[in-house]
Fold these 2 entries.
Entry 1:
Amino acid sequence: MRRIVIWFLVAIPWVLFMQHGVGRFRALVLAMVVSRLLLGVLAPLVGIACKWLIIGRYKAGKYPLWGTYYLRWWLVEQIVNIAGKGVFRDDLPIIGSQLVRFYYVLMGASIGNNVKIHKDARLGQADLLTIGDDVCIDNAQVRPFTVEEGHFLLMPITIGSRCAVGVKSVVAGGSKLPSGTCLGPLSSSHEQEDADESYKKYCRPAYEQPPAYLIIFVGIPILLLVYSISVVPWYFGLELMVGNAKANGW
């Protein structure tokens, strides 16, 4: 379905642009840009809507494998994974990771102020997540879902204020991290006795951003330059393909 939608989102604007006098190749490039923008916004919103329509708000409890609730959970997981986070995954300059935070709020998570979540962090069953203020979560897994003796369990997770979860760490279902708990890289919520405040300096979302003037006048131009260089082979390769097809017959 996603691939079919992508083709339609390319084909329809392509035809419309050409009908308004835009050249075939330029119309194709514009259509691909429009398709990417629309998909980046619409796909995650469709995933969020399907989650609320199919399963509503997740409820903590113990459920049989292959039962109705399990199949609804599985279906929602597939749809959300296929839809992706789209624009909500982007860690934009100055805005930072606020779009990621907003995505999980839309999914039903209770998230405090000044919470920073890595764009690749894997947070499951957002309704069962309670995250306090000033929390930093790196590329880690925070998932209330677990399996036990022919059943799956959904157990709430509470992360207190000023906590930090290091890269590739796991916060298991039913965990409660007291305020100020800092899990190091490659750790888990089962190792809270090893947690130490010094580990927070290794949590990448906690890094301080450069001053705004450096981001605007140095960082963004460098990112735009790198991106522009990266699309040059794609652009000219596509132009060559379209030009050759037009010259030699479609």
Note: The two ends are 27 Å apart (CA to CA).
Entry 2:
Amino acid sequence: MGGPTRHRRFNLSRWLGVLCAGLLAWAPLASGAAASLRGWPTVRASHGFTVQIAPGVSFSRYRLATSRGPLQIYHLRVDLSVSTVRVGLGLAHEQLISGDETVSSMVGRSGALAGVNGDFFDIGDSGMPLNIVVRNGELLRSPSGWAALAVGKDGSAAVTRYRWDSSLLLPATNETYWIAGFNTGLIPEGIVALSNARGYGAPPPDPGMRQTVIELTPSDDAQPSAVAGSSLLTLPSPDAGVPYRVKQVWPDQAYYAPFPTGTLLLVGRGKASDWLRSHVAAGMTVTVNLATRPDWRTTHLVIGGGPLLVQGGRVVSDPLPPAPRERYVRHPVLGVGIFRDGHTMLLVGVDGRQRFSIGLTQPEFAAYLEWLGVEQAMAFDSGGSVTMVVRFPGRPKPTVVNSPSDGHERPVGDALLVFSVPARTALFR
């Protein structure tokens, strides 16, 4: 999250002119909103509009005058039960470690209809998303324990929390060792597994740090899934590991990316490095189980966020929020709500830190999402990262519809993308 800066005003009249009159409807946000929204300031006036941008996808914008100040709110309603609608995960420059990328760039190059910023990320450093990443049914990063949005292969959506449960097995001796993370940062006394998706291999160890890199290639016994472009092998059972052959052991050396598709690195440091050196040798077969609870293999997409805001149709206080100190601070916010049918998603953004929109606290945001009638909801990264992008009918390029508080789009680590595709190519049908 960044501090307040000069802002770029959203030019409403300019883009309204390109919309067909039959698609546009202006209306009050709701009557009696002040009485219904617990913990909110008094709502003195509200107005807005809704426009359908594709079958199953609509965009709304609302302006509210409240007793504490004005608010600008944006809705993107997505019906995953419509055969032409699907969602995808945009990854900055197609790798986990990168220089970050704007949401409008990810929407533009992917051909998406719309998009919003996603997970918290390692801003100013690696740019890596900080929670679980599953894209097109492939696990790219292990979970951190914070809330996440999961979209199943059947098209249903849910907010859930993933627990990491991964291990390395030596079949010859039946010995196991816990794998502390997948495509995360390296751990001083643990083993981390790395794939090409991370965008960076294993650096040389610092002076005095013991490090062992195990280079693994797919075993002839492996049964890979038929995911186009996949850099890893995946098996359908959450309890079944993937067999690999140990190609080489690299003690106290760097191993840089890119490396061959299907190659997996195990990087052990400290005590874990000692264990790898004494137990693993070139030519051996090992089994790697990259598992989570619940099982990530049932999903098409998982993108991290937090905190959890609504559960069972009621506001909740997340016991494990990403930014606990910011709970009662007024910020630009963005999140996702899921209705009871499990297929209707509402992406909601609120401008903040600006004279025309003061933003919301986490409890206020949760109360608003509850009032909208969602069954589950969580926040995405907020503050200066808040971005909503829409490709309107008749316009050649996607438009940033909100006013980012940095005064311009902030490059981010990942994005949730919305697509409208021919029915025959929709992933869920």
Note: The chain has a mean pLDDT of 87.
